[in-house]
Write a structure and sequence with these properties.
Structural class: alpha+beta
Strand order of the largest sheet: 10-11-12-9-3-13
Number of helices: 8
Shape: globular
Helix content: 10-25%
Number of strands: 19
Radius of gyration: 21 Å
Length: 359
């Protein structure tokens, strides 16, 4: 298995390690619920160095990234971050990525499960002098998430982050080393990401804990990351979106700029928008006992009308929640559906918006 620069640190901290798409990663340190609640109420730190980072440069870099993504990177200036699906000619989702606008091009931050596929796909669409490099092996990424994340990150970096707005990033220094700090997050909480060279990862990790006790800092693993993103109704590639689903079906239409001159899959998505989708991704809360899991049937009046894509007990709400695709005619908020859990149907209610209404 691949290891991050922090693998031994996680082991020493007593983390339960698992194989995550070929990476040895911590799923939890103490317990999923404790780590989840720590991020919701204080601050947690995640090692997300398994994510891929590609650098796209050259005069044609903008043309390339505009062609392979559905959003519009032409509106970006250095320091901006944009979320976007990568799409196939059929309009389905290859991956969902973050685009960082740097001075001479772009950084593309991709899911670890799709790194090789994404790199080959983007590389196959290079034009002119555009050059694509994979920076992933030499880079570590930390995510510091939670309502107390800003004062902690400010203390470690020795600078104010008041002017770093949501979905923005900037370069700064950590002990003389140039790093990037961004403000996105995958938890529904305020949070920051730090990109830095592997050889400084252990130092900054330990410094966060030296200064983080007064903020209630705890390390958090993949288990809490998943329940946190589900409560925030954020899709997970491989569960809620994949190469069989389109951004319009997944509720990601605001990231599809059909007024852009061209992107791969545009014609299909334009037609789908005009004709209407047949199924859509919805969120639901269980009204009866049972935890929905990926693949469980969604039933209405004895008929299977969809399938669960993600589900879990919500530590914050104390209820089981989930997401799934359902025929669009049954997708209205407050519709009562049933989830078939090992042959037994349990009622659930479709909701609008996120499970948690955080500022």
């Amino acid at each position: 298995m691949k290891k991050t620069a922090l693998t031994e640190v996680h082991r020493e901290a007593g983390a339960k390690m698992i194989d995550f798409f070929g990476w040895e990663m911590p799923v939890y340190y103490t317990s999923l619920i404790e780590e989840h609640n720590c991020v919701r109420n204080a601050v947690g730190i995640f090692d997300i160095s398994h994510m891929g980072v590609f650098e796209l440069t050259g005069e044609q870099a903008l043309s390339v990234v505009s062609k392979v993504t559905t959003n519009d990177p032409s509106t970006m200036v250095p320091g901006d971050i944009q979320y976007s699906p990568l799409t196939t000619p059929e309009g389905t989702i290859i991956d969902d990525i973050l685009i960082y606008r740097i001075e001479n091009g772009f950084w593309l931050v991709v899911n670890c499960s799709n790194m090789e596929k994404d790199f080959k796909w983007i590389q196959s669409h290079l034009e002119g002098d555009a050059e694509l490099k994979d920076l992933s092996d030499n880079m570590s990424i930390l995510a510091i998430q939670g309502p107390k994340s800003q004062p902690l990150v400010e203390e470690v970096l020795g600078e104010s982050l008041d002017d770093l707005k949501f979905y923005k990033f900037r370069k700064t220094k950590y002990h003389g080393l140039e790093i990037i700090v961004s403000r996105t997050g995958y938890t529904g909480e305020d949070g920051f990401e730090i990109y830095l060279a592997n050889d400084k990862a252990v130092n900054i990790w330990h410094e966060f804990f030296e200064k983080g006790s007064k903020y209630g800092l705890q390390p958090a693993g993949l288990g809490a990351r998943d329940t946190l993103r589900l409560e925030a109704r954020l899709p997970l590639y491989g569960n809620d979106i994949d190469d069989t689903t389109t951004p319009l079906e997944a509720g990601l239409g605001r990231f599809v700029k059909l007024d852009k001159e061209y992107f791969i899959g545009k014609e299909v998505l334009q037609k789908q928008k005009e004709e209407g989708i047949k199924e859509k991704l919805v969120a639901f809360v269980m009204e009866e006992r049972g935890i929905p899991r990926q693949g469980y049937p969604i039933v209405l009046n004895g008929e299977e009308v969809g399938r669960v894509t993600s589900g879990s007990m919500s530590p914050t709400l104390g209820k089981a929640i989930g997401m799934g695709y359902i025929k669009v005619e049954h997708a209205q908020p407050d519709t009562i559906i049933s989830i078939s859990i090992r042959g037994k149907e349990s009622k659930a209610r479709i909701i609008q918006g996120r499970f948690l209404n955080k500022n």
